[in-house]
Amino acid sequence: MKGLDKILLSRMGPIIAGIAVGILAPLLVHLGNPGNMGICVACFERDIAGALGFHRAAVVQYLRPEIMGILLGAFISAMIFGEYRPRSGSSPVVRFLLGVFAMIGALIFLGCPWRGYLRLAGGDWNALYGLAGLFVGIGIGIFFLWRGFSLGRAHVGEKGSGLMMPFLAIVLLALLVMAPKFGAEGTGPIFFSEGGPGSMKAPWIIALIVGGLIGWMAQRSRFCTVGSVRDLFMLKDGHLFNGIIALLVAALATNFVLGLFKPGFVGQPVAHTDSLWNFLGMVMAGLAFTLAGGCPGRQIIMSGEGDGDAAVFVLGMIVGAGVAHNFSLASSPKGITPFAPAAWALGMAFCLAVGFFMARKID
């Protein structure tokens, strides 16, 4: 264990974490998760929102144990290695709204950065447009960072304040296992899809263990799909980006072995072929992730470390999933909805305003 931890803390750490995600995500698909969606933080948070009744899209409702596993794995790792540090107070309302619009952008594309790479490794060429948009969005965020953008400093919190998200994860796990029914008719507010992507799932205990392992490894290695691109261009440091390359290679190889690699644009699982909006959706998501300080997976991991600001962003994404489906903003395999462009314009205006007005010019 000490030897592996030493590797995770080295420059090899992101590579090891990337390989783990690249192998385990297709294995979860093989065991029942939706295609090219072994682990998608945005999609899985969307499913959790549906299970809690925040939206009523019946095909995407399930308390995904992978998310709880990632959070608890990061929390346990942080506690063991002395990196549990409760802090919060850095522009919480702005972070919340960034989370909302990040989710709307991700659901226009139908995936978070993790799923973008996993879709590409599964042969879904539509992901190329999404990943291009992600890079552009991160690039816009880097422009603001160069200008001195900051959401302000977080403040040290009480020891117990950082326990709220791990506690919430345990509650959600309990609801998943017990599957209680409430009300006179014995329905809801915990909903489980009977068809569609929400009904496709690996055994929950395996999904939980996989999520816990990834959460631990990503916490130790600082694995982040957005921070890796940011550091590559801002600091000329590619060691985090090596983890992305490792993820792609490992996922591609695993998909080949499992017979899951199916190249093409048409007929890809939970995907659409509108190239422009695959690109634009991830421009907005990438910008929001960069302004908030990390990809959705990294935000969950930081919330496990006691970061209340990251927790606010995660909760914003969950609420954003409810907004996206209740207001018909989320895409489907048929493409985007008529309301998505207006929501995208509003979200981009908000993100750009945050970038401009929360930055100071550095001479």
UniProtKB/TrEMBL annotation:
- The organism sits in which domain of life? Bacteria
* Keywords in alphabetical order: Membrane, Transmembrane, Transmembrane helix
On whether Repeat is a keyword of this UniProt record, the answer is no
Indicate the transmembrane segments per the record.
12-29, 67-84, 96-116, 128-149, 161-182, 202-219, 240-261, 276-296, 308-327, 339-359
Q: Name the chain's protein.
A: Uncharacterized protein
Source species? Dethiosulfovibrio salsuginis
